[in-house]
Amino acid sequence: MSAASNLLTYVERHRAALDRLADLSPNVERAATLLLEALRGGGKLLTCGNGGSAADAQHFAAELTGRYRRERRPLPAIALTTDSSALTCIGNDYAFADVFSRQVEALAGERDVVVGITTSGNSENVVRALAAAKARGARAVALCGERGGRVEEFADVTLKAPSALTAHTQEMHILLIHVLCETIDDAFVDERIAEQA
Ligand SMILES: O=C(CO)[C@@H](O)[C@H](O)[C@H](O)[C@H](O)COP(=O)(O)O
Ligand SMILES: [Zn+2]
């Protein structure tokens, strides 16, 4: 296959997923409400995922602690994918399946939200992270593919990207994350305007 023909295939498949993304509106609204409740109530976001989804988890957290598009106060979010000492200690002394859940047990409280990103919906370490969130009384949001997966069992809200392919599921995930960031900006930019008034 030439790169040009791959490009056409990818554009077609990306567009097919994109065309169905608006079906997620009710759950996007629910996820945003949950995140805003947490952030307004003094809670934080803990994000996790593997491979490309680890990058998404970090991207999401950085949009909050740094900035997304508009000026607002920094917001508390931690990607559980970045501390190589914690990841290697937990992976080595316990199991790779525990690398996120053990951090959730250490860091999550009732006001927090754990966001698990997995295209298969079944990565054991993400499933356990969401289970640990529930056990600690925190909320859980899952981003996965159209087939759902075991994460659904523990998530308060599941955003199922309308694709069964990893690449396009990831592409939809980053779009959804940006939509959530835009909505968080909306809420906290208003807070800033209210403070200045
Ligand atoms: O980015 C990619 C493929 O596009 C890979 O790194 C991919 O994220 C990894 O294979 C992950 O381990 C897949 O895990 P998951 O999405 O099923 O939870
Ligand atoms: Zn990738």
What's the SSE blueprint?
Blueprint: H1 3-19, H2 25-40, E1 45-49, H3 52-65, E2 77-79, H4 84-93, H5 101-107, E3 113-117, H6 124-135, E4 139-145, E5 157-161, H7 166-196
Parallel strand pairs: 1-2, 1-3, 3-4, 4-5
What would the keywords be for this entry?
197 residues; alpha/beta; Rossmann fold; 5-stranded parallel β-sheet; 5 strands; binds D-altro-hept-2-ulose 7-phosphate; binds zinc ion; zinc ion binding; zinc; SIS_dom_sf; metal-binding
What does this structure look like?
It is globular and about 50 Å long. The termini are far apart. Strands 2-1-3-4-5 form a five-stranded parallel sheet, with helices on both faces. It has helices at residues 3-19, 25-40, 52-65, 84-93, 101-107, 124-135, 166-196, and strands spanning 45-49, 77-79, 113-117, 139-145, 157-161. By secondary structure, the protein is an alpha/beta fold. The chain has a single domain, classed as Glucose-6-phosphate isomerase like protein, domain 1 (Rossmann fold, 3-Layer(aba) Sandwich). The mean pLDDT is 97. The longest helix is centred in the C-terminal third of the chain and has 31 residues, at 166-196. It is 54% helix and 13% strand. It has seven helices and five strands; from the N terminus they run ααβαβααβαββα. The protein binds D-altro-hept-2-ulose 7-phosphate and zinc ion. Residues 50-53, 118-120, 123, 126, 166-167, 170 line the site of D-altro-hept-2-ulose 7-phosphate. Residues 50-53, 118-120, 123, 126, 166-167, 170 line the site of D-altro-hept-2-ulose 7-phosphate (I22).
